[in-house]
Design a protein that fits this description.
By secondary structure, this protein is mostly helical. It folds into 2 domains: 1-31 and 187-387, no CATH class; 37-168, no CATH class. The chain has helices spanning 2-10, 19-29, 42-55, 63-79, 100-110, 120-125, 173-186, 191-198, 218-247, 253-272, 277-281, 285-292, 300-312, 325-339, 348-351, 367-377, 379-386.
Length: 387
């Protein structure tokens, strides 16, 4: 619930069909992370739970229920620890629907912690086939005799004494070293890995504002440059969309306040981009599409919308293009293209479900989620941010 609330505050809703580009950049910069991830410890808690179920010889047809039971128990263990920030299910408890395993599964696969190309349902079905043969371990927890696991990475640290009845987000040095090694070996060219190796602070709102940005690898620098230009250029489309929705509300004080707010946001968008107008005007979308092609798939409709919006260059207008007819027509067409009869514009019943500020969060490509993970793996980075 806490993670979902943070998501609402950042408002990462995709109202104009830009998710493929947003997620493509996010996965390139911070692979293995996700917007609902809260703490790095879950990358270890989940495999430890499944190892426990292996030791108990849980049958395949019972492992899903058994894993859920242990993940629910984990909530209480973490709530009894000294640090409860980021506990998934702290409010829902037994009613929790989105378990940590589902939130972290893709990341565990990306970092090679889980070593099979399987989703959770397939893994549960084949669970009994991944029994670990008993074998002695060295000081690092590595198997020195017997067959290595083929589901979970053989170097996975052993859980601390008392787990899962006792658990904490404060990772042991060996736990942190293991996760850092996994990230370095599997996604070593990413910004996530670079910051783990070289970062001195995380105290910025956007990754391209990082004081070490000039030291980032050239590939990362170019990725951030393209990601920033896209974020800057497309922010105005979300503001205009919300302004158009507010205009269709019945006359009221609330409507007047929203109209003033969104017009002010569009003006601020123009003002904030004054320093980067030259870079935006010189931005080659042909180069952009060529650059992102290897790591994202963009539909023709999305590509056309982006090209049309950027071509309008609304950021050059002092009012952010608030009253530009061609921009408004483009927004209306795009929403209809994406949502069909569920489009809000021109649909009073659908407009009733609008919660305001729809999709207005600036695209920062999962930076807040990455910061949470990085601070757990290198606690001194959190200290640097506070000093």
């Amino acid at each position: 619930m806490e993670a979902i609330e943070k998501l609402k505050e950042n408002d990462a809703r995709d109202e104009l069909g830009l998710a493929a580009i947003r997620d493509g950049f996010s996965n390139e910069l911070f692979p293995g992370t996700g917007t609902l991830q809260t703490r790095a410890g879950y990358f270890l808690f989940v495999p430890w739970i499944y190892r426990l179920l292996h030791k108990r010889k849980s049958p395949s047809d019972q492992v899903e229920a058994a894993a859920r039971k242990e993940e629910i128990k984990l909530i209480s263990a973490l709530m009894n620890s000294d640090d409860t920030s980021g506990v998934l299910g702290k409010v829902a408890r037994e009613r929790l629907k989105r378990l940590p395993s589902s939130v972290y599964w893709a990341g565990m696969r990306r970092w090679g912690i889980f070593q099979q190309d399987l989703g959770t349902e397939e893994y549960h079905r084949l669970f009994a086939e991944f029994r670990e043969l008993d074998g002695a371990r060295d000081d690092d927890g590595q198997l020195v005799q017997g067959r290595a696991r083929s589901d979970w990475h053989p170097g996975l640290p052993l859980p601390p004494a008392g787990f899962p009845g006792e658990a904490s987000f404060k990772l042991r040095a060996g736990d942190r070293a293991y996760l850092i090694e996994r990230i370095t070996l599997t996604v070593g060219s990413s910004l996530l890995a670079w910051l783990l190796r070289n970062g001195t602070t995380l105290d910025v709102e956007k990754p391209w504002e990082h004081p070490q940005a000039k030291d980032f690898p050239k590939r990362v620098q170019e990725t951030l440059r393209q990601a920033q230009l896209f974020s800057d250029a497309m922010l105005g489309s979300a503001y205009l969309y919300n302004l158009m929705l507010a205009e269709e509300l019945p006359e009221s004080e609330r409507r007047s306040e929203l109209l003033a707010k969104y017009r002010n946001w569009l003006t601020q968008w123009h003002d904030e981009l004054l320093a980067s107008q030259a870079a935006l005007s010189a931005w080659s979308l042909n180069d952009f599409w060529a650059f992102v092609a290897p790591f994202m798939r963009v539909s023709p409709g999305t590509r056309s919308f982006v090209e049309s919006w950027v071509g309008l260059r609304g950021w050059l207008s002092p009012d952010g293009g608030a009253d530009a007819k061609d921009a408004r027509q483009l927004i209306r067409h795009r929403e209809r293209q994406l949502k069909g009869p569920r489009a809000r514009l021109g649909n009073p019943r659908a407009l009733e479900l609008w919660g305001t500020d729809s999709g207005t969060g600036r695209l920062v490509y999962r930076w807040p989620s990455a910061v949470r993970i990085l601070e757990d793996l290198r606690p001194e980075l959190a200290t640097n941010a506070q000093s």
